[in-house]
Amino acid sequence: MWWRVAQTSLAIARLAAGEPEACLRIVSGPEASWPAGPPTAVPRDVLRAVALATSGDLDAADRYAQRAGALAEATDLAYETGCAGYARAYVAARARRFAEAAAHAEAAATHLAAARTPVEEALARHLAGLAYARGGRAARARAAFGQAEEAYEACGATWLRAVLDRHRAAAPARARRDAGTPATGAAALSAREREIAELVRAGLTNQEIASRLFLSRRTVESHLSRVFAKLGVRSRTAMAGRFTADFPAE
Q: Is the Cβ–Cβ distance between 151 and 122 less than 8 Å?
């Protein structure tokens, strides 16, 4: 069992590092090494589907995504069903079937929320945002990106948050604009950024904020750098003043 867990984790790492061929070599070993039970078979087929789609083999990717989905749905396991739905969404997005991709990604997020796996849920919301943006549904894209952003921040997933920022910046301009005037100043802060700004205004140090929010000090510093940039300030004192001007303390 631990060997299979390690192999799955290594395949995920290879895929995240942009090495789909290495991922495929890991998950394409002898069938006897990967028993057919859903907890093993579904992640294996999900990884195959995503890696193949990344490599451009959409037909094979679709077959593995469909197989993962059928197995997961037959057993009614929330996590496996959510992961299989993510694979279906990813393959559909690669095939430019954006409406289908968004629907699968939203369904996957619902299952992953039920399974209480917040990072995987955020990944599904992130993918939904991309599908909405590329399909021209700007308001839906902003909402999905916002949900993914808040979840990444709540989990301290700063690397994934950085990926989200790049994807959002590269989205079609209409998916980045608000219907009216874009938010500026403190109104542009995310929920986590506003929470940290509140604590700075209250006089807490970075280490005290990290301890209170169960984050690393480096994560707090990363959030603060974004707060400074959004507010156009260079010091904690100036940040607190700007934040107070926009959101007076109660």
A: yes
Quick check: 61 and 49 in contact, CB under 8 A?
yes
Cβ atoms 38, 69 nearer than 8 A:
no
- Phi/psi class of residue 56: alpha, beta or left (left: φ > 0; alpha: ψ in -120 to 50)? left
Nearest to 148 by CA among 117, 126, 177: 126
Burial group, residue 236, by CB count within 10 angstroms (0-12, 13-18, 19+): middle
The Cα 237–Cα 167 span in angstroms is 32
Per-residue pLDDT of 176-229, as tens digits, reads: 554 444 455 666 777 788 888 888 888 899 999 988 888 888 888 888 888 888
- CA 17 – CA 219 distance, rounded (Å): 22
For residue 88, the tally of other CB atoms under 10 A from its CB is: 24
Segment 49-62, tens digit of pLDDT: 999 999 899 999 99
User: Does residue 85 contact residue 53 with C-beta atoms inside 8 Å?
Assistant: no
Using a 10 angstrom Cβ sphere, with 0-12 exposed, 13-18 middle and 19 or more buried, the burial of residue 149 is: buried
Distance of alpha carbon 50 from alpha carbon 18, whole angstroms: 11
